[in-house]
């Protein structure tokens, strides 16, 4: 097995890193009830069964006239007499007699004696007499009881991260509360003597802390309860105290900076002394130094300091890990081939995530162009990009016109 902590050994591939995370993380198991309206993005913890048939009543699929198919005159036009109206929410109260029809609107209950609805555009109404065409078909345009969901059937199985449509489906069955996994408690902080928090004047030699604001955005997820612990200077003791204190409260800690091999890079060393390092360096670019491990019960992600490396390692490593910890099923990123319209530089050895801009021509073909400078400190090209161009470890560069693998992403919520 690769000793991922040793500098002399080969770097861990991203797939191996993800396998290690998968083996190391046990999802949270406590659950809580929440009102359906607050359940968006939460992880469903128990299956939900439908207490009712959906639709609950036989109803019209369109505006028209409800009638009994036995009144159809084979291949001939015919007329029926209007007996009343069935509105959505106000059903026709009478009993349909042979030779009669009922004006009906979409979603309205179909009278028991009717088994078909004809579109209003296909008939001619003359007072109470409705003229049906010769090609009137039997048993049309009726939504059957339970055709969407049968009473007692499973509406949604756990685990699932609930979407807006899931909430709609549950609401259609009258469900107003669901059992969800508890929120993950996540803390994050920046490390570095050079960092100044936004809102303060910039001093010479210092930089604004962009990672913390960005991480706050990347962690915006209803399954997470997130706390910003600020900036910690490059002071070993302070860092160690902060790690230990946070590890007793949170399910996961995310730090940025100080994860490399510089004189002031203490993160991995501290993780080693007060917890366990599972891996430290992975064969990706940007984002090689990434310390994953745990301190007590708390998972620890020590991300690199360069902002683009933070985004890449967050999306590729931390996000799937947190998803697993939250109890949500894993998601494979969508990847497909596109033609690269420019040359890309790359040395073999690490899998690269280059920033790209995707487009599609009128034939549906995908094209990708580099979003510009690829340095791991160049956040402007990250902001302009909408996909990664994923270049495998062995790739030695790309010529314009080559096919490449792209992974589109959205950094908004
Ligand atoms: P480090 O891993 O601490 O050596 O940091 C690598 C690079 O990322 C340095 O240029 C840092 O100044 C920069 N960096 C570290 N933390 C942050 C941050 N929170 N915001 C912006 N840049 C950062
Ligand atoms: Mg630093």
Overall morphology: elongated
Residue stretches low in confidence (pLDDT < 50, at least 5 long) are 1-6
| Record field, number of beta strands | 28
Structural class assignment? alpha/beta
Helix content: 10-25%
Major sheet summary line? 6 strands, mixed
Second rung of CATH, namely the architecture of the largest domain: 3-Layer(aba) Sandwich
CATH topology assignment of the largest domain: Molybdenum Cofactor Biosythetic Enzyme, Chain A
Radius of gyration: 30 Å
Ligand inventory: adenosine monophosphate, magnesium ion
**Strand sequence of the main sheet, in spatial order?**
8-5-7-6-10-9
Termini distance? Answer: 39 Å
Q: Given the structure, what is the number of helices?
A: 7
Q: In brief, what are we looking at here?
A:
This protein is an alpha/beta fold and 413 residues long. The chain contains seven helices and 28 strands. The relative contact order is 0.13.
What would you say this structure looks like, in words?
This protein has 413 residues and is an alpha/beta fold. The chain has four domains: 173 residues, Molybdenum Cofactor Biosythetic Enzyme, Chain A, CATH 3.40.980.10; 47 residues, Molybdopterin biosynthesis moea protein, domain 2 (Alpha-Beta Complex); 85 residues, Molybdopterin biosynthesis moea protein, domain 3 (Molybdopterin biosynthesis moeA protein, domain 3); 73 residues, Beta Barrel (Beta-clip). Helix content is 18%, strand content 31%. The protein contains seven helices and 28 strands. The strands form eight sheets. A six-stranded mixed beta sheet has the order 8-5-7-6-10-9, with no helix packed on it. Strands 18-15-19-23-22-20 form a six-stranded mixed beta sheet, sandwiched between helices. A hairpin with a 2-residue loop joins β9 and β10. α1 runs parallel beside α6, α3 packs parallel to α6 and α4 packs across α5. The longest helix has 20 residues. The structure holds adenosine monophosphate and magnesium ion.
């Amino acid at each position: 097995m690769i000793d991922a902590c040793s500098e002399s050994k080969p770097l861990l591939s991203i797939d191996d890193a993800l396998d290690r995370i998968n083996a190391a993380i046990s999802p949270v198991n406590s659950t809580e009830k929440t009102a359906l309206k607050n359940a968006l993005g939460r992880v469903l913890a128990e299956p939900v069964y439908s207490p009712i048939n959906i639709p609950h009543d036989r109803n019209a699929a369109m505006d028209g006239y409800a009638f009994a198919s036995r009144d159809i005159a084979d291949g001939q036009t015919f007329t029926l007499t209007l007996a009343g109206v069935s509105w959505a929410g106000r059903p026709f109260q009478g009993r349909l007699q042979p030779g009669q029809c009922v004006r009906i609107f979409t979603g309205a209950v179909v009278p028991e004696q009717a088994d078909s609805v004809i579109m209003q555009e296909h008939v001619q109404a003359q007072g109470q007499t409705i003229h049906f065409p010769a090609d009137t078909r039997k048993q049309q345009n009726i939504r059957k009881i339970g055709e969407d969901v049968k009473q007692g059937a499973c509406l949604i199985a756990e685990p699932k991260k609930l979407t807006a449509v899931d909430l709609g489906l549950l609401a259609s069955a009258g469900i107003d509360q669901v059992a969800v996994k508890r929120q993950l408690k996540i803390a994050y902080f920046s490390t570095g003597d050079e960092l100044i928090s936004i809102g303060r004047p910039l001093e010479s030699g210092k930089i604004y802390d962009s990672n913390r604001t960005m991480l706050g955005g990347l962690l915006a997820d209803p399954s997470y309860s997130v706390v910003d612990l600020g900036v910690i200077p490059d002071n070993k003791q302070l860092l160690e105290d902060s790690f230990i204190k946070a590890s007793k409260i949170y399910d996961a800690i995310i730090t940025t900076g100080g994860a490399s091999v510089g004189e002031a890079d203490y993160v991995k060393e501290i993780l080693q002394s007060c917890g366990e390092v599972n891996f430290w360096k992975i064969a990706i670019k940007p984002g090689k130094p990434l310390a994953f491990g745990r301190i007590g019960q708390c998972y620890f992600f020590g991300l690199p300091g360069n902002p683009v490396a933070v985004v890449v390692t967050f999306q590729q490593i931390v996000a799937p890990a947190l998803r697993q910890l939250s109890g949500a099923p894993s998601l494979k990123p969508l990847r497909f081939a596109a033609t690269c319209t420019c040359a890309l530089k790359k040395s073999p050895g690490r899998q690269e995530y280059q920033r790209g801009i995707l487009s599609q021509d009128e034939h549906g073909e995908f094209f990708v162009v580099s979003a510009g400078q690829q340095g791991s400190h160049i956040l402007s090209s990250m902001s302009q990009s909408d996909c990664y161009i994923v270049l495998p470890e062995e790739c030695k560069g790309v010529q314009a016109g080559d096919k490449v693998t792209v992974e589109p992403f959205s950094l908004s919520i």
